[in-house]
Write a structure and sequence with these properties.
Elements lengths: L1 H21 L24 H16 L7 E2 L7 E3 L4 E3 L12 H10 L21 H6 L4 H12 L1 H21 L4 H17 L4 H10 L9 E2 L6 E2 L3 H7 L7 H22 L7 H9 L9
Antiparallel strand pairs: 1-2, 2-3, 4-5
């Protein structure tokens, strides 16, 4: 026992002498902990519900005009196609908006839909139309009429794409937020709307209408702060502050918050004022469930 104690003392003495000559140990730098994004509960949307909501989105975008399933809106630099007016860019187009038509088309093809031969290409090619004038000149062309037929024939699948886009939105939004308490707030407000809405129409439509709100490009400098301000679902959820679970209260608050961020966008970019009436009328439809017929 005495020999073991002497040996241990010798080892300690040697270690102390090495430390004395080598200087203090280097500090250990610990990796900064990453803020975890909580798991999202899966929201199930039946094909029947998706189609009913998709029909309302189509009415919002086109007024029910079958020809308007292929459109080029005034003052825009791209085509808007399908029931959700998914946007499609021509080669080399630079814009602040996020393209959505290629992802929708791939979704349709993955589920067996076959687009016209000229469009059945992987990857999805750029839009062949580079200007509103060219688009309108070729509106009755074989290429355009075949595209309209394909989009009208795949109404239900496009509606399912809208529903999937809604399901995937919250994780994307949360991943764009560093502050945990803000993520919790956004999750709480999203769940309030999802629980209050029997058809999920407000969430599905707004994401299609104005996006998730996570792209830095989809912002304008704030009129008062100069800081980038967006207008997507993220900004709507951030503007909501309520806690009531009463459906009428929640849906009314969502409509109010959507109106707030859209009016802020107009204040930050006054040329958008021409859209104000239509935009605010659209968000008013979020206050009540869709007619089930």
């Amino acid at each position: 026992m005495a020999r073991i104690t002497a040996y241990m003392l010798a080892v300690i003495a040697l270690a102390l002498s090495v430390q004395a000559t080598a200087g203090p140990p280097e500090p250990v730098l610990l990796a900064k902990p990453q803020l975890a994004v909580p798991a999202m509960k899966r929201i199930e949307v039946s094909p029947e519900l998706a189609e009913r909501v998709g029909r309302q989105v189509w009415l919002n975008e086109t007024g029910g005009n079958r020809d308007a399933i292929t459109a080029w809106n005034a003052s825009e630099d791209f085509a808007s196609l399908g029931i959700g007016h998914f946007i499609w860019f021509s080669q080399g187009l630079e814009t602040r908006f996020v393209e959505s038509f290629p992802a929708m088309l791939e979704f349709l093809r993955d589920r067996g839909a076959r687009p016209p031969e000229w469009l059945d290409v992987t990857p999805v090619p750029p839009s062949p139309w580079t200007s509103k004038r060219q688009f309108e000149r070729e509106f009755q062309s074989e290429r355009m009429t075949s595209l309209r037929k394909f989009l009208l024939d795949t109404f239900g699948l496009q509606a399912q794409f809208l529903a999937l886009r809604m399901q995937e939105a919250l994780p994307r939004i949360e991943a764009s937020i560093a502050d945990r308490s803000t993520r919790v707030h956004v999750r709480r407000q999203f769940n309030r709307v999802a629980d209050a809405s029997i058809d999920l129409y407000p969430l599905i439509d707004y994401i299609n209408f104005k996006g998730e709100g996570i792209s830095a490009a989809e912002t304008f400098p704030g009129r008062e702060t100069g800081e980038p301000e967006g207008w997507g679902l993220k900004q709507v959820l951030l503007a909501m502050q309520g806690r009531s679970s009463e459906p009428a209260d929640v849906l009314g608050e969502f409509a109010d918050a959507a109106g707030f961020v859209l009016k802020r966008r107009i204040a930050n970019n006054p040329s958008d004022k021409r859209w104000q009436g239509g935009w605010l009328a659209r968000v008013e439809t979020y206050r009540r469930p869709l007619d089930p017929r």
